[in-house]
Amino acid sequence: MKKRIRIKDIAEKAGVSKGTVDRVIHKRGHVSPDVKKRVLAVMEELDYRPNVIASALAYNKMWKIAALLPNPADDAFWVQPKSGIQKALNFTLDYGMNVDFYHFADADTKGFQKCSDEILTGQYDAVLVAPVYYNEAHQFLNECEEVGLKYFLINTFIERKDLSFKSYIGQDSYQSGVLAAKLLDFGIETGDAVMVLHLEKGVYNAKHLLAKEQGFQNYFIDHSSRNIQIIKTSFEEPKDTIAFRKFMNYQLKSYPNLKGIFVTTSKVHYLVDVLSKLQTQKIKLVGFDLISDNLTHLRAEKIDFLINQNPVKQGYLGIINIFEHLVRKKEVTPIQHLPLDVVMQENLSYYLEADKQIHMMI
């Protein structure tokens, strides 16, 4: 059995006091460069690994974390990442981890900026952020770097040239668009039309939605022999059923050969409700996420496929990555793509059971 290395052993070998070794390990107080170098050399020679978790407990260290997310009251999708964050918090609470939630309203860029400003002045150790608004998120992340606030991303990947973010956890948005196109391709004929439909405000300030659109379009470009017509459009207020019905009625009349629609968010259930009152021919539908309204329509075979983005895991692993970095002093993998699960009526029960087990495990 390997002998346990103590601070006393390092101090004796380096010819310094135990207090000096403690200050080097925990980066507290002043230690001259020569002494610090000598202590670190002895630590390496003896293969000493400090128990940083025990140290955090011993010094009663509290870690302040901010979570910046869209309001779950506006979009049921965001209930799930928040649930994952709370589960991770239950696991890390004994190690001094505390999370403050900052929510902004759907498509409210000013609300995002207001929350960002509060976080920047809140003396936080790290922030977990869903940077759904490209321009405002870029500004916020730049300001995080200016003040030295460590940031971790979920759901939406915003590339930083120097990879200064600590980690990104979520789907590969481009590949999810490719996958959606491939799923629709199974059920359409040569010469048919397909639509990529954004049910969001400010689509062109949402990088993840544009990446999905690009992946979808490129799939059919790469399969040009099928001669599939691609329609790209958006509608900002799907909750306004009368206006949305008029919009979709116009689309159906304009494109009578429309046979498949890809909704780039979890709001595909709004489309099902509208289509049921407008058209008789079957249009294949692909959307995202296992929220309650989508599941109802999937069971009734009114939605053909749902792509599960594992939102609970996104929130959970986001906080665990912060824990690993701050408390355990480990470097985390910068980009962590979660699998894109294809869920249909035939395998829904499997995914629901697996999701229950994940909830129990985490």
Lay out the secondary structure.
Elements (H helix, E strand, L loop, with lengths): L6 H8 L3 H9 L6 H13 L6 H7 L4 E8 L8 H14 L4 E8 L4 H12 L5 E4 L4 H14 L2 E5 L13 E3 L2 H13 L7 E6 L8 H16 L6 E6 L6 H14 L3 E6 L4 H8 L8 E5 L3 H8 L5 E4 L2 H16 L8 E3 L3 E3 L4 H14 L1
Parallel strand pairs: 1-2, 1-3, 3-4, 4-5, 5-11, 6-7, 6-8, 8-9, 9-10
Antiparallel strand pairs: 10-12
Helix pairs in contact: 1-2, 1-3, 5-13, 6-7, 8-9, 10-11
Summarize the structure.
By secondary structure, the protein is α/β, with parallel strands linked by helices.
Mean pLDDT: 89
Task: Name the shape in a single word.
Answer: elongated
Q: Would you identify the CATH architecture of the largest domain?
A: 3-Layer(aba) Sandwich
Determine the fraction of residues in helical runs and give it as a percent range.
Answer: 40-55%
What's the domain count? 3
Distance between the termini: 33 Å
Structural class: alpha/beta
Question: Which blocks of ≥5 consecutive residues have pLDDT under 50?
Answer: none
CATH superfamily of the largest domain: Response regulator
Spell out the helices and strands N to C. HHHHEHEHEHEEHEHEHEHEHEHEEH
Helix tally equals 14
Arrangement of strands in the largest sheet: 2-1-3-4-5-11
Beta fraction of the residues?
15-25%
Number of strands: 12
Give the biggest sheet: 6 strands, parallel
- CATH topology of the largest domain, by name, is Rossmann fold
CATH class label of the largest domain: Alpha Beta
CA gyration radius, whole angstroms = 25 Å
